[in-house]
Amino acid sequence: MQLHAFWCMSDNSARHYQNSKCKVPARRSFMAEGWAALHQAALDAGAEVDYWPPDYPELRNRSYIDGEQYAALLQPLIELAGIDTTTLGERSAVVKAAVWRWITRLAKGHAPALWKYLGGLKSRQALMSAFADFKAGKRLAGNPGYVSRDPVTVVRFGFWLTTEGKVSGEHPIVPILWGLAIIGAGWGEHLRCGYCRLCFRRSRPSEPYCDFHTQSGATKENRSDAYIRYRRGCLAKALADKRGLESSLWDDRVAKHSNERLTLPNVLFPMTPADGWKSDREWLVLSLERAPRVVKQAKLSGFRHMPHEELVAHLRMYIDPNEWDDFAWGFRVLRAEIWLTLEGEVSPGKRGRGRRTSMLVQEAIRLACEGAANGEIAVRLGVSAPAVSRWIKRYPEFAAVCAVRSR
After folding, report:
1. Quick check: 112 and 201 in contact, CB under 8 A?
2. pTM for the complete prediction?
3. Which end of the chain offers a freer environment for a tag, N or C, measured as fewer CB atoms within 10 Å?
4. How far is CA 318 from each of CA 207, 216, 236, 313, rounded to the nearest angstrom?
5. Is the CB of residue 155 less than 8 Å from the CB of residue 186?
6. Count of alpha carbons within 13 Å of 219, Cβ hemisphere only?
7. 314-370: pLDDT as tens digits
8. Which of 281, 341, 343 is nearest to 315 (CA)?
């Protein structure tokens, strides 16, 4: 069925429409939440016109869109809706409301039962369970798939449904409704990923800690490991504060706010530079050459010969799973190296030799060279026999002397 444009208006009509009852209701469904998130992501990705309000007082500090860029990011949704952004005065709020009105009309006309059902769902789990039942037995050719516990794959799948998804035997509005609902439930009102309260990493939406320091979702088997990582992070954070490393590890408030807002656009609208990552790869390789701990943890021993996309995939897997800005990794690697160094300093068993212990070990080595047995060394140094055994395991130079002595 061919979908036709439903709305054309003058500037006066646009002002009346914006203040009418057709606005997205205050009590919004997952579908409305999804459309609000998708619209804002398109603006943040470059569809919003950037201007300095004092230079254009006649614009009254309102948000305007670049119609071509907006349509390119959200195709074919805008084309199906038949929205003429020029007729609507390029006003962001008016265009947003016009598309929502088109969705509402089409849904109530061609999928009223689904519209009512999705509007009544209250939890993300209930929505994803309902979608699993819906798609069972239906063919969704080319779908990217998703992991229900991963909000990134969930919203990407919802975006695919909204812009590309087709369900055989169903009206085109059906995958659009499901896609918007999945985006709304997967992202909710969290239009941003935050920062971990301890380290340099990004956290999942609404989570206070990154995947390395969170204890949320820990099982009985890994609860102890999760606490150890959290505790180590607390100690490393205290050490960073003591040494005044805030500016080296964390962005200021303005930069954090900007980066948080760009998270969803980075997920839905990944960009590639004009030179095909050449200069970014050079900067990333240079950073990795100065970050041996990062190279070891990310398993990048051959990083000098790896393409940029593969380097980023490894870093995202092992260093910061929630950093979706492909342009940010050069600086992230340097920050990761500083953080891993701090964590290494505060890790148990990494305290190094004390002065007294070093003196005792040197004396034990001298006695062992003279042929003294472990028990005799313990008596003469005033320590226990198990302490001498631990020194042999811990200090290679002592172990080497004892090995020669035993021959």
Report:
1. no
2. 0.63
3. C
4. 19, 19, 19, 9
5. yes
6. 2
7. 999 999 988 888 888 988 999 999 999 999 888 865 455 667 888 888 899 889 888
8. 281
